[in-house]
Amino acid sequence: MPPIIEVRDLAKTYASGTVALTGVTLDIREGEILALLGPNGAGKTTFISILCGLVTPTGGHAAVGGHDIARDYRAARTLIGLVPQEIAVEPFETVMNTVRFSRGLHGRARDDAHLEQVLRSLTLWDKRDARLNELSGGMKRRVLIAKALSHGPRVLFLDEPTAGVDVTLRREMWAVVRDLRASGVTVILTTHYLEEAEEMADRIGIIDRGRLLLLEDKARLMHEFGRKRLTVELTDPLAALPDSLAGHGLTLSENGLRVSYDYDTRADRSGIARLLAGFAEEGIGVRDLETEQSSLEEVFLRLVEEGA
Amino acid sequence: MNGRAVKTIFDHEMARFWRTPWESLASPVVSTVLYFVVFGAAIGGRIPSVEGVSYGAFIVPGLIMLTVLQQSIANASFGIFFPKFAGTMYEILAAPMSFIEVVAGYVGAAALKSIIIAVVIHLTAMVFVDLPMAHPVWALGFLTLTAVSFSLFGFLMGLWAKDWQQLQFIPLMVVTPLVFLGGAFYSASMLPPFWQGVAHLNPVLYLISGFRWAYFGMADVPVGLSLAAVTVFLALGLTAVWAIFRTGWRLRA
Ligand SMILES: Nc1ncnc2c1ncn2[C@@H]1O[C@H](COP(=O)(O)OP(=O)(O)OP(=O)(O)O)[C@@H](O)[C@H]1O
Ligand SMILES: [Mg+2]
Q1: Judged by CB atoms within 8 Å, which residues 133-152 of A form the interface with B?
Q2: How far apart are CA A106 and CA A192, in angstroms?
Q3: Domain boundaries, chain A
Q4: The domain A5-222: what is its CATH number?
Q5: Nearest ligand to the CA atom of A208
Q6: What integer is the mean pLDDT of A286-301?
Q7: Does domain A227-293 have CATH number 3.30.460?
Q8: What is the ipTM, given to two decimal places?
């Protein structure tokens, strides 16, 4: 299956001279959820804005559904729904009207049955006649999602969909995104919440200073880049670690009953065997072992630091 | 061609007009009545007629032109400035429509609003004075071309404006003076020769003169020149829009 979005050497230098993107190349697969992670100012919004037609690239090109975003912008944009980072709504418009407006802009005939379905899926149906300035921030964000879905896009861009959204609503939002994926929609989301990427994404891209540092299946990423922590529970408390074990970089808990050891799953040898042999030599009794995968957060911070 | 999108913008803009019909229509009507009271009754008593037309009737075309220019600019500039201000512009830019279609939606609605207001003023004026119409088709033609041209200018101003002050600036500082000095309330022939020359440098004079000719069959300048003037206005507006379309000025970073 050809990729739904192809991006080649996409670059953007703003008129102010700010270099926001430097030659990003990637393919996005139809039906996947791709999370773009990156610190503030990394270029995530710029990337999305170019694909949606809000910003003109200064280099490279891109295609959505095989349609070049510049030459064949109508066909490309018809496939796209965009939920922007900033919440912006027309204050005096009603929910239903603003969603109808979005659908009309995309050249689709009025279809209130479809809109009802969209509003219901976002628990906005009861608010259909409310004015937008009467809604809470979280509701407004859902209205923006409803607008983006009003014309039945095949690709949905969500620029930080859960920024400033409470935990319950965030989980609701995740459920909505999963349903969308189940119906075949490709979702590209940006986030600062690594938890979110970990929770939602099929693949994760990390952007920093306009460069795509990495694009990887989430599971592989977690596996390949993950550090693990081994915690060894001892039968008897230790007052201090013996000198023979000093080279392993161990830490002893305050009660002397737990020793933890960090290792890199990417290394050829984890060093666990050597460590345990060392314990045996010293006559330290081991009651239990526990390993813990490091979170994406740590993976992310390490990559950004390495990239610096 | 995304005709549905054009209609969506057009309907959206017209809906704002009809949602508050009182504000939309009452204010032009009230100011018309005021002008009649002040100029028609007070001054008109001293100027019984201008070239055979009663002064009360004489000022009607100028009054309509004044309102059409103001309303076209105000409506179109507000129409495009508001989404910029509210931050909803992204939706227009991400829609599968060309800039020309966006312009057609906003300018079409702004022009139609002005034309509706013009008709209402005309009808209001008929209550006060006898209003002949020598060339109704020409009147409608001048009216439409003027409304479209100045809605285009308004659209450009709304695009250019970065805040509400800028939005008010050109209508207040340029357009209103040009209309008042463009013979809205007098015939240029009533001026001393020097000021007649100055008045003829004012492009708005040609619009008002042409429109007045359509009413009364008399004009300050040959009607062909008026037609040329309105064509130039339209061409200027279209050229500027085209240039923006090519460059993305003030729209896309
Ligand atoms: N319209 C603009 N004009 C000039 N510079 C801009 C513009 N928009 C963004 N930038 C700059 O481009 C860079 C990338 O910004 P962008 O908004 O793409 O980052 P981001 O990854 O979305 O950040 P955040 O996580 O804070 O939303 C930043 O340095 C920003 O200041
Ligand atoms: Mg951003």
Answers
A1: 147
A2: 30
A3: 5-222, 227-293
A4: 3.40.50.300
A5: 1
A6: 75
A7: no
A8: 0.88
